[in-house]
Amino acid sequence: MKLLEQRIIKDGIVAPGDVLKVNSFLNHCIDVRFICELGKEFYSLYSDCDVNKILTIETSGVAVSCLAAQFFDVPVVFAKKSKTSNISDDVWSATAHSYTHGNDYNAVVAKEFLGKDDRVLIIDDFLAKGEALEALLSICESAGAAVVGCGIVIEKKYQGGGDKLRQRGIRVESLAMIKSMSEDGKIEFCH
Amino acid sequence: MKLLEQRIIKDGIVAPGDVLKVNSFLNHCIDVRFICELGKEFYSLYSDCDVNKILTIETSGVAVSCLAAQFFDVPVVFAKKSKTSNISDDVWSATAHSYTHGNDYNAVVAKEFLGKDDRVLIIDDFLAKGEALEALLSICESAGAAVVGCGIVIEKKYQGGGDKLRQRGIRVESLAMIKSMSEDGKIEFCH
After folding, report:
1. Average model confidence (pLDDT) for chain A?
2. Do residue B76 and residue A32 have CB atoms under 8 angstroms apart?
3. DSSP type of residue A48
């Protein structure tokens, strides 16, 4: 998506540790009008898939999911991140590793909000190694929910998480796919 | 707001420890179409206040803020909750206590996203003792930003946080105000 690539070039900051900061429009300050355009794009990709629920994970996924959900006219369920190992019986859960924070967490969804009648679009802001996405997919599998695909704002393609999922037959659509980035701020996209 | 009171009566669950759970439409599963109506209501309350930014705090405040922001056509900045006491120079921060989690945290906003030219509407899902709101107000004060008021989805009026702020001359508008609730599930509203 050209509009997003242009915005990343303009406002994204490549920080040490292979981090792309897009705090000025996605992760801290949310440019709502712009993120709406991304939501519309997800809808154009998945409008014929009978999506009845969007699943995401806190925190940054919530904004883009809610704005996208309006086009689908479906509710958003967001998995909560929990550090406790005491998982109750009434939730679906899966463990994931955060490379950003260097720790493990449980992604948790109450059973009452996800089940076998659901056709789920998973939305998230970033896809790198795919840890969060794997956890959400595992939760959908536990719940017996069908996953129509994943909608990602920014995929760091060179980290391989997206392609690993595509190889398993999962549809992954990323609005911007980064081929490489370097600490002098140069960002290259896949086309 | 009648629509919200009806929804709380229908779907809210009074849980032990004076907790009102509205997970089915606000805090875990987000009924996007419904929350949009709340956003529209915030707009009708504050449309003539020249709001140019909405400030909230992660996580649940993000959804309602983004959906409300569309009517104002302004960006949303969400304060991050940080447990670390190492606060860098480039952020505004304030300490708050979470009664839900029984701990203290720092609410943190990058300086670049809040400053003296801003006219801020603070939005949050719940107001009880007002800890989170006090932290956000303190951040705005540090930043030199003008606060036009606060928009709250559900205020537990009997906990006094809202009235304490009103006594200081801060405009606080709550879409539902709870007068009392009991563990047998009975909820009474202020009118």
Report:
1. 95
2. yes
3. T
Other beta carbons within 10 angstroms of residue A103's beta carbon come to 10
Closest CA to A61 of A128, A17, A109, A122: A122
- Amino acid identity, position A131: E
Q: Which of A78-82, B35-39, B150-154 has the lowest mean pLDDT?
A: A78-82
AA identity, residue B89: D
User: B109 has which bridge partners?
Assistant: B92
Q: Give the SS3 label for residue B180.
A: strand
- Give CA–CA dist A104/A135, Å, rounded: 11
Cβ distance B175 to B1 under 8 Å?
yes
Residue B165 φ/ψ, nearest 5 degrees:
-70, -40
Do the beta carbons of residue A21 and residue B112 sit within 8 Å?
no
DSSP 3-state assignment of B88?
coil
The complex's ipTM works out to 0.95
Interface of B with A (CB under 8 A): 23-24, 28-33, 35-36, 58-59, 62-63, 66-67, 69-70, 73-78, 80, 109-110, 112-113
Q: Minimal Cα–Cα distance from A167 to chain B, Å?
A: 30
Residue B172 to residue B150: CA distance in whole angstroms: 5
Tokens 């702020």 belong to B165
**A84 CB-contact burial (10 Å; exposed 0-12 / middle 13-18 / buried 19+):** exposed
Q: How far is B34 from chain A (nearest CA, A)?
A: 9
Rounded-to-integer distance, Cα B49 and Cα B150, Å: 12
Nearest to A59 among B62, B70, B113 (CB): B62
Please determine, for residue A103, whether its predicted confidence score (pLDDT) is greater than 90: no
Euclidean distance between CA atoms B100 and B97, whole angstroms: 9
Tell me how far apart the alpha carbons of residues B52 and B38 are, in angstroms, rounded to a whole number.
19
